[in-house]
Automatic annotation (TrEMBL):
InterPro entries: TraB/PrgY/GumN_fam, TraB_bac, TraB_PrgY-like
One Pfam short name: TraB_PrgY_gumN
Region (Disordered): 1-61
Transmembrane segments: 307-325, 332-354, 360-386, 416-442
Protein name: TraB family protein
Comp. bias regions, Basic and acidic residues: 33-42
Keywords of this entry: Membrane, Transmembrane, Transmembrane helix
Taxonomic superkingdom: Archaea
Family matches, as NCBIfam families: traB
Native source species: Methanohalobium evestigatum (strain ATCC BAA-1072 / DSM 3721 / NBRC 107634 / OCM 161 / Z-7303)
């Protein structure tokens, strides 16, 4: 053990800092896996011996896996009872360092989100996705009367009570979320966000609505929920479930290898991970490198999102060129541009207004929308968001409470959330305004694009 949290309970913080032990590839055949689900269904309990493990006179290390529902009081009670009865040497929890510190109220990070980086690097929708995921889990927890993460805190408290060491075996949450966002395609992101919003407003699928949280650790229910996620967003399921199954299994192998022989380890993980982790532990040679699972996928040089943005700009520029080349009188040309300016600006400003942006932010959106629609490297939301941040600078408390908001009033009182919402809705308004503006310009000038294109082709002999 390298680092002590207190005199009795230790968390090793060697590299990488979100596992308890350094990774040893030569030790993956040293453990016996004992699996037990937190459920009354006894047929789910089984014990798996590693077929590749060589015979050894030393006593084998045992790993007991407990699958829990993250928002169930029944799971909390069963986790605590199991730890107190088994008295393990180590309690491994499905947490990374930052999540552990957040749950324990020991978050030492003073890092604040850079507004310019958040807006300028196109992280607005990624930020909103993070918030939606956190809000959804908190909403479910509130309905169940259980705070999300309570079973992990209870496991840690129980470990401290019996003097067991604590192992943090999950991948860093930021790496998971960034891999999750970067690997998803445009339409999958839209579908995922739509499902989250639907769940928040209560229009989720019947299957999801009829789930009993106290029975969520039942394997049939777990399978149904996982398959439901795979239908909605297969890439999300791969990153959030499959990759983390492998990562947690690899971390547990490392914990067992470094704990020494004859140790008892209890791993507390979400029910959706239990089966996948067990499969990896029964065949440790199939566990991928943890370093590989910690790398961020390279950004795609081409994406539907980028193509869509360039297509919108191309449409606007092509319309202007079409009007100019058609010999439209200057007076009519100015009227068409005026219509474009007003429609694009009004809809962009409307998005800012809906987000309850500052009057200066509304004015900024109105005045810049026409220009940003002609440049794929700029967006009206950037300017409006930066103006909002300037007029209502996010406070330190806004960064801390962004994931704790529950009511609409709390959301709009959080300046950071409002900056993000202003930028997002302004961009949406500008996009709609571009399409509508093009239509109005063509109506004002009376130009039929098809006729102009056909005439041009005839002139060049095609």
């Amino acid at each position: 053990m390298d680092e002590e949290i207190n005199s009795e309970n230790k968390i090793n913080n060697s590299q990488p800092d979100y596992t308890m032990y350094k990774y040893h590839t030569t030790s993956q055949s040293s453990s016996i896996v004992k699996e037990e689900a937190v459920t009354e269904n006894k047929d789910m309990e089984d014990e798996t011996n590693n077929p590749s493990a060589p015979e050894d006179s030393s006593e084998p290390t045992q790993i007991k896996i407990i699958g829990t529902a993250h928002v169930s009081q029944k799971s909390i009670d069963e986790v605590v009872d199991s730890i107190k009865q088994e008295k393990p040497d180590i309690v491994a929890v499905e947490l990374c360092r930052s999540r552990y510190e957040g749950l324990k109220g020991e978050d030492k990070s003073n890092e604040e989100v850079s507004i310019k980086q958040l807006i300028g690097e196109g992280k607005i929708y990624f930020f909103l996705m993070q918030w939606l995921l956190a809000y959804m889990q908190k909403k479910i927890g509130k309905e169940m009367g259980v705070k999300p993460g309570s079973e992990m805190i209870s496991a840690i408290d129980a470990a401290e009570e019996i003097g067991a060491d604590i192992a943090l075996v999950d991948r860093d949450i930021q790496i998971t979320l960034r891999r999750f966002w970067n690997k998803m395609g445009f339409f999958e992101k839209i579908k995922m966000i739509g499902s989250l919003v639907g769940g928040i407003v209560g229009i989720g699928g019947k299957q999801m609505q009829n789930v009993d949280m106290d029975n969520i650790t039942n394997q049939d229910v777990v399978t149904m929920l996982v398959e439901e996620l795979r239908k909605i967003a297969p890439t999300a399921a791969e990153v959030l479930i499959d990759e983390r199954d492998a990562y947690i299994a690899g971390s547990l192998v490392n914990v067992a290898a470094n704990a020494g022989s004859g140790k008892k380890i209890i791993a507390v993980v979400g029910a959706g991970h239990k089966s996948g982790i067990q499969k990896y532990l029964s065949q440790p040679d199939t566990i991928p490198s943890l370093n590989e699972l910690n790398t961020l996928p390279k950004k795609r040089k081409f994406s539907i999102t980028k193509a869509f943005g360039f297509a919108i700009v191309g449409l606007a520029i092509a319309t202007f060129l079409l009007i100019i080349l058609s010999g439209t009188p200057l007076e009519l040309l100015l009227m068409a541009f005026g219509g474009w300016f007003l429609i694009n600006g009004t809809l962009s400003a409307g998005g800012t207004f809906i987000a309850r942006g500052h009057p200066y932010s509304v004015l900024t959106a109105f005045s810049t929308a026409w220009l940003t629609s002609l440049n794929p490297m700029m967006a009206a939301g950037w300017f409006a968001g930066l103006m909002e941040a300037k007029q209502r600078k996010p406070r330190k408390q806004d960064f801390k409470t962004i994931t704790q908001m529950e009511t609409k009033e709390q959301m709009f009182n959080n300046r950071l959330f409002r900056v993000v919402l202003v930028a997002a809705l302004t961009n949406i308004g500008s996009m709609i305004g571009t399409f509508l503006g093009v239509y109005v310009m063509l109506q004002i000038t009376g130009i039929d694009p098809t006729e102009v294109i056909e005439a041009g082709l005839r002139n060049i002999g095609l």
